[in-house]
Amino acid sequence: MRGLIPLAMLLSLSPVLAHAAGPEALPDRFIAAWNAHDPKAFEQLYQVDAVWVPIAEERTEGREAIVSEFAKVHVGGWAAKTTITKKDAPEVHLLRPDVATIFFHMDFLKDGAPVPGLQRALILVATAKDGDWKIAAGQLTKESPAR
């Protein structure tokens, strides 16, 4: 019985441990938030003063505004009908112990198939505060055709 108490305590901490993961966990956390179509899921991903560039013509500043923009496309918008998946292993570069860049390609899927013209690359700047890695800045870019 004594062994069950520490195990139960460890299991109850699992959401906390998930956030304590390094910057390499952010792509999967972003994908999970997108695929859940729950704007609240994005709140845990972004620093309070984050900057998000979903397309070249737009810049959204602050977690609250970023989450609001995700809500517009995920609640009854076009994104509610899609999921995303990674196309490759993310490249993570630790610039300092608390700052990293992350780059990966992803596909937008509808009914399990890639949506033509919606292949994207995502670059993130992540920062850690008290060991909790979050997105400080990010930009979606169109994937260039193979050369």
TrEMBL record:
**DUF4440 domain span:** 28-135
SUPFAM superfamilies for this protein: NTF2-like
Q: Signal peptide position in this chain?
A: 1-20
List the keywords (alphabetical).
Answer: Signal
Name the Gene3D superfamilies on file.
3.10.450.50
Coiled coil location: none
Provide the protein name.
SgcJ/EcaC family oxidoreductase
Q: Origin organism of this chain?
A: Caulobacter hibisci
